[in-house]
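Person: Show me a sequence?

Helper:
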Amino acid sequence: MNLPDRGRRFVLQQFTKFLDTEESVETVDDVPPRLTFKALEAIRMSRSRERIMNNLEEMYREAFERAKASGDPSQMTALDFSYRREQLYFEILLDVRDAMEKR
């Protein structure tokens, strides 16, 4: 749709008025969402180590029981390996998180 320049300007002004609300006004406290050290310091992790590990175990236990019920030994072996690998990854990440919180 080709609008004359005045028409485009008018539409743009109306659109800007529509979007300009008190919520859209930039303030000094506005900080772009970035994963910086300062942002990490401000955010404290809410999940405990035990809760995370219990959730992981519960998820894999359910999948293992389904594989066991279907009689699939290769799936059970793959799930067992995956569980141990994920457990190790989470423990490393949680160690890093704990070290960062102590700083």
Remarks:
- The two ends are 58 Å apart (CA to CA).
- The longest helix spans residues 73-102.
- The chain is about 70% helix and 0% strand.
